[in-house]
Amino acid sequence: QVQLMESGGGLVQPGGSLRLACTASESSRSIFLVGWHRQAPGKQRELVAAITRGGSINYADSVKGRFTISRDNAKNTVYLQMNSLKTEDTAVYSCNCITNSDHEYWGQGTQVTVSS
Question: I need a labelling partner for 13 at 20 to 30 A (CA). Which of 36, 63, 81, 99 fits?
């Protein structure tokens, strides 16, 4: 079973930046895909960005040009660099992974609040 731990959330002013980290308890070699999702109050959860072991990356249209997903295989960590943050980016951000054996795991989530 893979355990995922998110970190890096917090309170930031509009226009500011945050970097989220998602660290897995197992080697990145056993993980096919890692995704970052968010859920704002009263809204459905949405995929923000995802990266595969092969390096393919996808972003939601709402974050293209502002967010960057990257990975550090040596640290079993996937990062989400969030720049030019807007109030509408406020949400709980969670990461998930899909393993090579097609199992899916989720982290607990971290709160991101964008407010002046």
Answer: 36
